[in-house]
Amino acid sequence: MTNRQLNWKLLTKDVERWNFLRQHDQDETIINLEGVNLSNCNLENANLSNCNLSNCNLIGSSLRFADLRHSNLSHSNLIGVNLRLANLRGSYLVNAQLNRANLSEANMIHCTLNESDLSHSNLYETELIGSYLYKTNLSYAQLVNTHLTKAYLLLANLDYAVLNNTDLRWANLTQVDLSKSEIIFIKK
Description:
The protein has 188 residues and is largely without helices or strands. It has helices at residues 3-13, 15-24; strands spanning 31-32, 51-52, 142-144, 162-167, 182-187.
């Protein structure tokens, strides 16, 4: 059995044990879980910081309170994932599928979400300060009390998105069309 298979099996069976081993592991290398199927798993509170989770299937999984700092989730399928209160600070989610995801109150400061699909997602009080959302699909997303200060939203799709008390101060909105968005109040 490969190390990746051992890591994957431990993670899905015993998150507390996984976290204990991560806490006491002196090896700072990135854990490679690329391409594993973690769909419909309960990964609440999991320490997945500095992990390569690219090309993973996480459909329907719960990652509430998970630590995903500086992880790579590019090209991963996160449709319907619960990431409420997760810490994704500095993570890469390039071309990730996050439609219908719950990202409420998540820390996504300095994330790279270029060309990702966040349509129909809940971004209530999500911190996206300084994040890159180039060509990101945010159509029908709920951006209520969302912090997008200094975010780069070049060519982002915000059609039919709800922007209520959304902080867009110093955000780069080059070629972003807000005419189809439901704007209740934005800070600019």
